[in-house]
Write a structure and sequence with these properties.
Layout (H helix, E strand, L loop, with lengths): L1 E7 L2 H11 L21 E7 L3 H8 L6 E10 L7 E5 L3 H14 L10 E5 L3 H4 L3 H11 L3 E3 L5 E4 L8 E2 L1 E4 L1 E6 L8 E7 L4
Antiparallel strand pairs: 1-2, 1-10, 3-4, 3-9, 4-5, 6-7, 7-8, 10-11
C-alpha cells in the first residue's frame, strides 16, 4: 500500500479552497475521464510504502506545532499531479518537518516541487489541448487570483459575488492517506493533530 503524509487546512479552509478547485474554464474541452477528479487540498509531506502507521505517527511527533502556510504563486505544471498548483512559501518550519520525517523514517524524498498545493489534476491528453493553462487563465479572468503587494498571491474563495480572500492558512492536521488506484478512491487512514499555539 502506498501511503502519503498530507499537510491539510482546517475544514473551513478546505471548503474555501474547494471553491477554487471546482472552477472549470468556460471553454473546457476536457475529454479524459481522469481529468478534474475530486481530492482534498493538501501539501504532500512524504510518500512511502511498507511503514507502519505507528512509525509514521512517531516520525511526526506529538509536539509538532501547527504550520503557517503562505501562498507564493499559482503555477502551471507539466505533470498530472502538478497540473495547476499553489506554490507555497518554503518556510524553515516546513523544511525542518520535511527533513525530520524523511530522516526518521529512513526514506528518500519523493516530493517534487515541495511545498505545493495542487488545485487540479489534468491528464496529459487534455493538457495537450491547453487545459492546464486554461484553468489558470480562468482563475485570473474570473477575478479569483490576484497579486499581493509583496509579490505573493491571494485567492478569492467567496460565493455568489462575495469576496473572501485567502493568502494562506494554519494547517492543524497531518493526514496519513492511502494513494492507491484512481484518485477518487484514495482513503484517509489516520489524522495526526498538530499543536495550536
Amino acid at each position: 500500500m502506498g501511503l502519503s503524509l498530507w499537510i491539510v487546512p482546517s475544514e473551513q479552509d478546505r471548503q474555501k479552497l474547494r471553491r477554487i478547485m471546482d472552477l472549470r474554464p468556460s471553454n473546457s474541452q476536457a475529454k479524459s475521464e481522469t481529468s478534474y477528479p475530486y481530492f482534498e487540498p493538501h501539501i504532500t509531506l512524504a510518500s512511502m510504502s511498507n511503514i507502519s502507521l505507528d512509525k509514521i505517527r512517531e516520525a511526526v511527533g506529538k509536539t509538532q506545532l501547527a504550520l503557517d502556510i503562505r501562498f507564493q504563486s499559482v503555477e502551471v505544471g507539466q505533470h498530472f499531479f502538478r497540473s495547476a498548483y499553489i506554490a507555497v512559501i518554503p518556510s524553515p518550519e516546513l523544511f525542518a518537518l520535511h527533513q525530520n520525517v524523511h530522516g526518521t523514517l529512513g526514506i528518500e524524498s519523493r516530493t517534487p516541487s515541495f511545498p505545493h498545493i495542487s488545485l487540479c489534476y489534468i491528464s496529459d491528453e487534455d493538457a495537450a489541448n491547453g487545459q492546464r493553462l486554461q484553468y489558470k487563465q480562468a482563475l485570473v479572468e474570473s477575478g479569483k487570483l490576484r497579486d499581493n503587494s509583496d509579490g505573493t498571491v491571494r485567492l478569492n474563495c467567496g460565493i455568489g459575488g462575495e469576496e473572501d480572500w485567502l493568502s494562506g492558512f494554519i494547517a492543524p492536521e497531518i493526514w496519513i492517506t492511502a494513494c492507491d488506484g484512481p484518485v477518487e478512491e484514495w482513503k484517509v487512514h489516520d489524522r495526526i493533530p498538530l499543536v495550536l499555539s
